[in-house]
Write a structure and sequence with these properties.
This protein has 247 residues and is α+β, with helices and mostly antiparallel strands. 26% of the residues lie in helices and 34% in strands. Among the domains are: 86 residues, Immunoglobulins (Immunoglobulin-like, Sandwich), CATH 2.60.40.10; 82 residues, Sandwich (Immunoglobulin-like). Helix 1 packs antiparallel against helix 3. InterPro entries: Ig-like_dom, Ig-like_dom_sf, Ig-like_fold, Ig_Fc_receptor, Ig_sub.
């Protein structure tokens, strides 16, 4: 193969690999349905791997979920798997991994044998949006009095079982739980809030960094290939006969 053609092919391969790597990192996203962090025992939960054709869902303690391959389905934007019945030991942190070694964000769920759960979003809420926390009674779906707590401190009492924060802010982030008189108390779950980006240059600067990194890598590869080519053609390292005759 012509040496220059080989150089071009190698440089193009580097560009493709770098771009693919950046896209995979940006695309690695895990979400679940129902979109909440707490589940009653024996409920079903589905994990969605966005942006990838194939993924393996991993539990921090148990490792790869063995039941997922039997229920795995492909969707237009990725793939999914379902645990048809969750148990107490299914509580914990989950993420997904691809064949290429890319790891997604993690989601920490709680499974309870009790009669009360707090329904809060499993994924971060954008600052300024409205978010509703629902106290759910396993025994009855009708409205009921519910108390809500943040870090164990009572913050609200409602007759509908729901508490809405109309414009959520970073200060609303924290551990929440709820209780229903005469029924029980839910586990605690973390409400995550994502700050609105006010600096318009923050996102372009990230792209500039990626472009500069790619260009630098290409230049280094090209220089290395040039050096190898010169050595291969004998233009470097040849001994000068005039210099060798000097006493």
């Amino acid at each position: 193969m012509d040496f220059r053609a080989l150089c071009v092919k190698l440089v193009m391969s580097v560009i493709i690999l770098l771009c693919a790597h950046d896209q995979k990192i940006d695309a690695a996203s895990l979400h679940i349905l129902p979109n909440r962090l707490q589940f009653f025992e024996y409920e079903a939960v589905t994990f969605y791997c966005d942006g990838v054709d194939y993924c393996e869902v991993v539990h921090k303690v148990k490792g790869k979920i063995k039941t997922c391959p039997n229920t795995k389905k492909r969707t237009p934007t990725g793939s999914s798997c379902t645990i048809t019945n969750v148990y107490l030991d299914d509580s914990g942190e989950y993420w997904y991994e691809t064949e290429g070694g890319i790891r997604s964000n993690s989601i920490n769920i709680s499974v309870t044998a009790g009669s009360v759960i707090l329904e809060s979003p499993a994924i971060p809420v954008m600052e300024g949006e409205a978010v509703t926390l629902s106290c759910r009674n396993k025994l009855t779906p009708s409205d009921f009095m519910a108390d809500f707590y943040k870090y164990g401190v009572h913050i609200s009492n409602t007759s509908t079982g729901n508490m809405t924060i109309h414009k959520v802010s970073k200060s609303d982030e924290g551990y929440y739980k709820c209780s229903i008189l005469g029924v029980g108390e839910s586990p605690e779950s973390w409400l995550s809030v994502t700050e609105t980006k006010t600096d318009p240059s923050s996102q372009p600067s990230c792209h500039i960094y990626l472009v500069l990194r790619t260009v630098f890598t290409i230049i280094m590869v090209a220089l290395l290939l040039l050096l190898v080519g010169l050595l291969h053609s004998g233009k470097i390292g040849a001994t000068n006969p005039n210099l060798s005759s000097i006493p």
